[in-house]
Amino acid sequence: MADPDSERAAAAGALARVHAAAGPYLDSLADRPVYDRSAEKLLHELGGPLPEGGAGTEAAVELLLRVGAAAATTSSGPRFFHFVTGGSTPAALAADWAASLFDQNAFARVSSAFGHEVETVALDWLRQLFGLPEGWGGALVASATFANFTSLGCATQWWGERHGADTVRDGLSGLPRMPVLSGGYVHASARKALQMLGHGRDAVEVFARDAVGRVDLAAMDARLAELGGPAVIIGNAGEVNAGDVDPVADLAELAERHGAWLHVDGAFGLFAALSPRTAHLVAGIERADSIAADGHKWLNVPYESGFALIREPARLGTAFGMPGAAYLPGPQDPGGGYALYGPESSRRARALPVWATLAAYGRTGYRAMVERHLDLAQHLARRVEQAPDLELLAEARLCIVCFRAAPPGVPEDALDDLNRAVAAALLDDGRVYAGGTVYGGRAALRPAIVNWRTTADDVDLFVDVVRELVSRLRPAA
Ligand SMILES: *Cc1c(COP(=O)(O)O)cnc(C)c1O
Questions:
Q1: Residue 87 and residue 55: Cα distance in Å, rounded?
Q2: What is the whole-number distance in angstroms between the Cα of residue 141 and the centre of ligand 1?
Q3: Which of 282, 294, 303 should be mutated for ligand 1, with most atoms under 8 A from CB?
Q4: Global pTM?
């Protein structure tokens, strides 16, 4: 019978097994399929009833590694173009292992001065990376969904204050519904954040001037004038279908004129700031009140990693502090920390991979990576334009290429079905991976390129596989 105490000496051996598996797994990323359906049959080996007597450390870890090495989706590899999925840089991966090794509770300075200080540095480096002014602060959170939640939580507190209310203490009752305005690019997770905050996901009023969702500034301006009181604007830096960006500076202008809070969801699009080729797309972000972004996308750190950056960071402590427990520090106490500036309480030291990857590659390394991805997106867009059976649906401004299959001779009214079939077949095939969507009313594919490992060969293989599937699935003439 094994228990942790009888296995005191086993940790180093188990870690050695992980280490031994790591090299071959990382080496295989360049070639292995993204998804291998045949490996799913191994998953039952992890099931069955809860063991009474455990198998012991090494046996359990060995089984997990054997099944995982075969059945894991290669989402950290170079050909996972679904969603917006980064990999892990070498430094981020190693530092993430270190975060588990040290097992810090980055709750506050009193639980881990190390975790707290590294987070402070990591947040300030992120601020500098995106060219935001000094004085901005933030918190590392699990994802951009939580970063939207954190930002909109601050916005809610601000909005309540404008109504003479303390929403943190008293909630929303007795107040009107908080007005939230956005263009058609607003992400589902911003709505989810509003639903978690008690505003409801339909709190968002959408102002779009076309089927794609480009923001209608004039209509938004008119609505803000009509409201005449505090409101929240959500700007979208990185629309998920084609990577387009709302005109952030124009939204900042509206926010300033009407006294609104401007939140920018920059989950991946914020990284446009890293290259002079794309920085104009996010010009004006420094005029926002809050920004949400992801680490596990374009920063290429392991899951779960997101961050909220706030112009007035003291609002984080106001919105997320936890007064009333005598054993806990308050937000302003020297022993306080990020658990009091964001939604989570106990939390892992997710700052370590963020710190390590920025320490390892710096501003120039990240700029080079982003520009490689911009080039690869252009390469993919050109290959789509050259293929007689494919049609580019939007200019690729960042890292996403939105296109559809449109082989000559296939009527327009058959194209949506064809594209849905191609998208499904792509996931089933597994050599490369990308998702289907609907863009401007048309079924389409939307590969996103944000993994540091991706090469032009990977992009070429993607186009070849898509075209092979199109020729197999297109209706007979
Ligand atoms: C991915 C994404 C999100 C949500 O991010 P998670 O990390 O999955 O929570 C929010 N907004 C945009 C624009 C995104 O692309």
A1: 32
A2: 12
A3: 294
A4: 0.98
